[in-house]
Amino acid sequence: MAQKKDVWQGTLALMVLKTLDTLGPLHGYGIARRIEQTSGDLLAVNYGTLYPALLKLEQEGYISSEWGVSDNNRKAKYYKLTRAGKKQLEREARDWEQTTAIVARFLAPGEEVS
Amino acid sequence: MRWLRVFALRVAGLFAKSQRDREFAAELDGHLQMHIDDNLRSGMSAQEARRQALLKLGGVEPTKEIYRERRGLPLLETVLQDLRYAVRTLRKNPGFTLIAVLTLALGIGANTAIFSMVNALLLHPYNFPELDRLVRVWENRGIDEGADARFIAPQDAADLLSGTPVFDALTTYKCGDFNVSAEGNVQPVLGCHVSANFFDVLGVGPALGRAFRASEEQPGADQVAVVSYGFWQRRFAGDAGLLGKTIQMNGKKYAVVGIMPRGFDYPVPMELWVPLGLSPSEKTDRAKLSLESLGRLKVGVTVAQARSAADSVSQRLQHEYPTTNENRRTEVLQLRRELYLYTLPLFLLLQAAAIFVLLLACANLANLLFARIVGRQKEIAVRTALGAGRRRLARLFVTETLLLSCIAGGVAVAVSFWSVKVLRTSIAPSWTMWVPGWDGIQVDRTALGFTVLLIAVVGFLFGLGTVLHSGQALPYATLKEAGRGPMLGSKGRLRSALVVAQVMFALVLLVCAGLTTQAFLRLVDVYQGFQAANVLRTEIRLPEKSYPENSQIASFYDRVLRGSASLPGASAAVLVTNSPASNVDNETTFFTINGRPAVKASEAPSADLQISSPDYFSVLRIPLVAGRAYSYADNANAARVAVISRSMAARYWPDGDEVGQQIKLGAADSKEPWMTVVGVAEDVRQNWWNPTSRPTIYEPFFQAPKRSMVFLMRVASNPAGYASGIRELVRGIDDQIALTGVGTLEKEITDSIAIIRIMGVLMALFGCVALALSSVGVYGVLAEGVARRIPEIGVRLALGAEPRDVMKFVLGQAVKLTGIGLVIGVPIAFAVNRAMSSLIFGIVSINLLLLAGFTLLLLLVALAAAYIPARRAMRVDPIVALRYE
User: For residues B420 and B444, what is the distance between their CA atoms, to the nearest angstrom?
Assistant: First the structure.
């Protein structure tokens, strides 16, 4: 449980940053839906856990927020990538690609042996 | 730096909570609305749409909770919460808080004050750089020469420096009175002849001007002087032009070349230093131990190494110069140790007592905390039942004890500063100026911090320990038992052990206090060989220039003695070289017995020499054991006579035939006249640190006049009232003579043992604190035990037990605990007493009556402490008590 959560929280930040990078300013609900759709419903996690992650990113200065109105006229807080956030995204994406590449290479011969 | 920004924002998150809560609630609300809208669009019923949205979110309140944790600093918030709670509980129990804080503050404060004093006096008596490398060097002739005889022969000192590889440098000096003339006025000041490297060896140079040059050690070139800061300020009002001016001393002109910085006073508070200009023959002298000496060890050389190196030189000299150096050995002692040879054990005793008080305070704190935790079993159980984890509970109690320690620490800081101030001001400056390092006594911050930290650690451990202990009890059992009986077994034992320890500590401390106080009283008794009441005392010094001849000195003092006899109420007046209890050792001298000459100079016997006018023995009421005292008839024209002390007579004439024998001062070849022993006087102890009275020769003043004398006058009453009479009398004879140290002999004696008195008072204080602490401990345990047993007592009373039996039971408990403590404490007290009497002069073996008294006292205090809870137990209304069940 704990491990799954850790992975989730680590990657969640990356997903949030990527989402905001792709779609521009977006509210929490929109981010949650987008992540869920992109992950193909594989990540069935409570939407509520997104909010502390957003708050953390905002405290770190990677995103900023302001109140706005949604498409169907609901009051919502919109999150937006900052310049520091853009840099952080590039850094994290690179790290992530490196990690996955290493893990992939590590796993590949194992499959052949079995 | 990003973490700093995060931290700052999270700290900010601690404030304006409700506004932030509202904002997040609005955000969540928007989130839910959007989700519901989507769900409705996908065809759900309104109810289902809302349910699914909430489900997906994971609940509104849990989301808010995890959000809040991220927003602020949850750890800090619980700490603040615990702190608020702790403040509340402490305020709710002011009695407990007060006792705990006072106990701790007293323990810490006493420790810090004593440690500060010991540290300042023992470790930093002087401000010299690398003090530990400075050693006193002197020669011991293998005979008892009195405590302060630490001198060396000039040539031996030179051989020591050249013959050993251990010294960087060695300086020699000789101190004495100088008569400084200023504007026709002659005043005696204390000064020192020092070798040119004196200031270099000490490592302190003049603040203005220069030190001496090696060339100024030559007789004739030696008329230069370095003066003290005080001398410069007092006599020349800090005149910057003093350098280069000359001052008139002992009939010679000295050019002032340097002014020492403020606070420099070595060997003792001095006014000035001049070069030690020895003639070539004086320099090569080995016969007389005439100089004092101080060496600076090379870096890395230990005192033990220096000692053995000096020893080998001594042995070589013994071989090469047997006539002068036979049995002569060199002693090396660290400078800072020399100062406190007599008082060191007393300081250590005080320090040990202070540590004991701290231990007692810790035991007391533990006891109080245990009592409180036991009383709060129910509260702990309720909290546990409501879901508080053990960690959370531990944090709560640790916060509480830490807060207590912090408050106590704060009070302790105040107590420390205050007690150090009291300590410093409790002795007159005229005495403390002779105590190097006294002015440097200040609160030792390291010691203070360490003690406060120690208390915090103790508080932490006890807070933790008690929670872990009580955490073992199952909440439902505790709730059912309502804090009664069974689970207290082991804790009860622990607390009883603490009480036993406290009683033991208290007994040992009381015994130490009693012994020290007794020792002090005995020290006062040391001066019982004479009667000090109703005696006025003053010092008179005649300048050499106006009184060069013995006849002039004798006629001046003769007029003083005659004049004082005519003062109303004065019965008799005398002169003596050194009054008893002056804290100055007598001059020692060799002497030779006619018919029994010592073969070698080194074997000549030695004795204290006192020169006094007739009536000395009758004025101080010193009894004569044999023969007669000398009278005014024994003057310069009569045959030379002497009186000797009883211990001297016993040592050299064990057959009792001393009266009529002839002695002379100096070795067999001395030119001193033979003196006939005419009488034997009872022994008088000169100073408190002399273990016994030393053999003493008394010589009649009018046969051997001296310029500096102590004047003593016995009057009918109120000796202090005669001070002005004596001043006028002396002024009438010679208006150039100023009296110093005018006061009563009784006050002189009291002042001379001031340091011992203060230690006695401090020890007595520690004893009282120990008594108070242990009674609080005994009371706490018993009161809590009674409170716990109220239902049981109620049942017993309801079943017909007599209140007397209840009383007996509670008091019996007190007697048991105290008894065990006393049984353990008595042998320890004996052991401590043995250790003390071997270390500290004046302490004798324990008085059984004293020990019995203290034992009884502790028992009575314990009974009194038990009486209050016992009475409460007796008054228990059975009905009320049974309702607890």
Answer: 10
Kindly give, in sequence order, each residue whose CB lies less than 8 Å from that of residue B644, ignoring residues fewer than 6 positions away.
Answer: B607, B658, B663, B677, B679, B680, B681, B695, B696, B697, B698
Beta-carbon contacts of B761 under 8 Å, excluding residues fewer than 6 positions away, are none
**B287, two tokens:** 């016969």
- Give the whole-angstrom CA distance, residue B833 versus residue B841: 12
Query: Mean pLDDT across chain B, nearest whole number?
Result: 82
Could you give the CA distance from residue B746 to residue B749 in angstroms, rounded to a whole number? Answer: 5
- Nearest residue of B to residue A84, measured between CA atoms: B2
What is the largest distance, in Å, between two alpha-carbon atoms of chain B? Answer: 143
Identify whether the C-beta of residue B391 lies closer than 8 Å to the C-beta of residue B464: no
What the block records as the tokens of A54 is 């957003």
**Residue listed under structure tokens 């067999």:** B668
User: Of residues A67 and B762, which shows the higher confidence score?
Assistant: A67
From B70's Cα to the closest Cα of chain A, the distance in A is 6
User: ipTM of this predicted complex?
Assistant: 0.86
DSSP B436-497: TTGGG----HHHHHHHHHHHHHHHHHHHHHHHHHHHTS-HHHHHHHTS-GGGGHHHHHHHHH
**Inter-residue contact A82 to A39 (CB < 8 Å):** no
Give the tens place of pLDDT for each residue, B225-260.
Answer: 999 998 888 888 888 788 888 888 877 888 999 999
Q: Strands B224-227 and B252-259, how do they pair?
A: parallel
Checking DSSP bridges between strand B606-612 and strand B587-593, what pairing results, if any? Answer: antiparallel
CB contact under 8 A, A51 and B33: no
The span from the CA of B830 to the CA of B183, in Å, is 64
B397-421 mean pLDDT: 83
Peptide bond into B568 cis (omega under 30): no
Structure tokens at B166: 């251990």
**B743 forms bridges with which residues in the sheet?**
B537
The pLDDT of residue B606: 83
What pLDDT digit, counting tens, does each position of B53-96 carry? 888 888 888 888 888 888 877 778 778 888 888 888 888 878 77
Torsion of CA B481, B484, B487, B492, to 10 degrees: 170
Say which residue the tokens 């039942």 belong to. Answer: B385
On chain A, the residues whose CB falls within 8 A of the CB of B6 are 56, 59-60
Distances (CA, A) of B127 to B120, B203, B339, B455, B722: 11, 9, 14, 32, 42
Q: Which of A28, A30, A52 lies closest to B27 in CB terms? A: A28
Beta-sheet pairing, B208-209 with B134-140: unpaired
Q: Does A86 touch chain B (CB under 8 A)?
A: no
Residue B524, judged by CB atoms within 10 A of its CB (0-12, 13-18, 19+), counts as middle
Phi, psi of B422 (to 5 degrees): -60, -45
Alpha helices in B144-242 (DSSP H): 154-163, 198-202, 229-236
Contacts of B73 in chain A (CB under 8 A): none
Structure-token match 């002032």, residue found: B256
Question: Residue A56 and residue B70: Cβ atoms within 8 Å?
Answer: yes
CA distances in angstroms from B812 to B799, B870, B874, listed in the order given: 21, 10, 14
Q: Is A85 touching B (CB cutoff 8 A)?
A: no
Closest to B721 measured CA to CA, from B744, B749, B740, B748: B744
Q: What is the CA radius of gyration of chain A?
A: 16
Structure tokens at B203: 């490592």
Q: What tokens were used for A28?
A: 């929490």
> Per DSSP, what are the bridge partners of residue B588?
B608
Cα separation of B655 and B650, whole Å?
Answer: 8
The vertex-B174 CA angle with B169 and B180, nearest 5°, equals 125
Domains and CATH numbers, chain A: 5-107 (1.10.10.10)
